Amino acid sequence: MTNTISQAAISKTILALLDETFETHYGIYLDKGTSLLETLAKIDYVKASAPAGGGCATLAAHVEHIVFYLDVLEKYAMGESVGKQDWGKIWARINTVSESEWESSRTKLRTTYIRVRNMIAEIEDWGTGKSLEGALAIIVHTAYHLGEIRQALCWL
């Protein structure tokens, strides 16, 4: 007897986890109002520019890092070569942001998320290539940064 999970069930689960992580409460693992985009909507540019924990990265740097790795993991999930990435560049480059830069950063994150979500929604075969690994990495890594951001808000 072989137990298999349908492609549709995998897609539904991946999309539900992705949606909850970024924008919608389903009660899978987040409390209402605590998704990434909901959390960021409550943060002004002053808080976004403050280093968390006395010298750690700013919230603005976290957001730019999320956009960066979404771009990389989207390519990875689609089987494209991602080459060697400079993962430290964002952390070194992003510190303080102006009000307009913060708004632009959040808009860029939402736009990138929607593009990546649409790509994931189009995946029909989770058993080939790197699509499942890439999608799960996006969810897990974003959840990690969401936790970092929410924890930092306790100190800011």
CATH topology value: Four Helix Bundle (Hemerythrin (Met), subunit A)
How many helices in DSSP terms? 7
Radius of gyration: 16 Å
Note the beta-strand portion: under 5%
List the domain count as a whole number: 1
Question: Major sheet, described briefly?
Answer: none
Q: Topology of this structure?
A:
Elements: H1 7-22, H2 36-41, H3 45-49, H4 59-77, H5 89-93, H6 99-121, H7 131-153
Briefly say what this structure is.
With 156 residues, the chain is mainly alpha-helical. The chain has helices at residues 7-22, 36-41, 45-49, 59-77, 89-93, 99-121, 131-153.
Describe the structure.
The protein is mainly α. The protein has a single domain, classed as dinb family like domain (Four Helix Bundle (Hemerythrin (Met), subunit A), Up-down Bundle). It has helices at residues 7-22, 36-41, 45-49, 59-77, 89-93, 99-121, 131-153. Helix 1 (7-22) packs parallel to helix 7 (131-153), helix 4 packs parallel to helix 6 (99-121) and helix 4 packs antiparallel against helix 7 (131-153). It starts with 6 loop residues before the first helix and ends with a helix.
Keywords, please?
7 helices; Four Helix Bundle (Hemerythrin (Met), subunit A); 156 residues; 62% helix; mainly alpha
